[in-house]
Amino acid sequence: MKAGAIVGFCILGAAVLIGLVVYFYQRKVNNMEHDAKAKFASRMRMSFVTGEGEAEKRETAMGAFARIDEDKSGLVSKEELWTYIHAKESNMTESEFNRLFKMIDQDGSNEIDFAEFLMFMGKLDGSKN
């Protein structure tokens, strides 16, 4: 076998190995995000994910948002959400919380507005599967 062919097989093998590592890492991250959503949903104890009407879902979400928004600014800071979740879910790690916050804070402002909160709560229906 020629040296070029051996080098080619080595490169191909390395590329396949890297691809597998990336695939399994991404799968692990997706599972962690799912777990964070599930923990949050269970601690919110909202009938939001049980199929009630849209108006009731919005009203329930508004109540939850108001409870989390301690300073009543209309925005939930990272600290406010951490305080709320930590009181309800004392075994959620800071790493899990940071991933959860990043999922909810779609615009990256480090604050959650009601629209972002409502969108996230709507996505919790999918986390039950």
Quick structural gist:
The chain is mostly helical and 129 residues long. The chain is 72% helix and 5% strand.
Summarize the helices and strands and which ones pair or pack.
Blueprint (H helix, E strand, L loop, with lengths): L2 H42 L9 H15 L6 E3 H11 L5 H11 L6 E3 H14 L2
Antiparallel strand pairs: 1-2
The secondary-structure element order is: HHEHHEH
The CA-CA distance between the termini, in Å, is 51 Å
Do you know the CATH topology? Recoverin, domain 1
The CATH class is: Mainly Alpha
Mean pLDDT: 77
Helix/sheet category? mainly alpha
CATH superfamily: EF-hand
Q: Based on CA inertia axes, which overall geometry fits? A: elongated
Task: Give me the CATH architecture, please.
Answer: Orthogonal Bundle
Report the portion of residues in β strands. under 5%
Unreliable residue stretches: 45-50
Count of discrete alpha- or pi-helical segments spanning 4 or more residues = 5
- Tally the beta strands: 2
- Give the number of domains: 1
Strand order of the largest sheet: 1-2
Mind telling me the C-alpha Rg?
21 Å
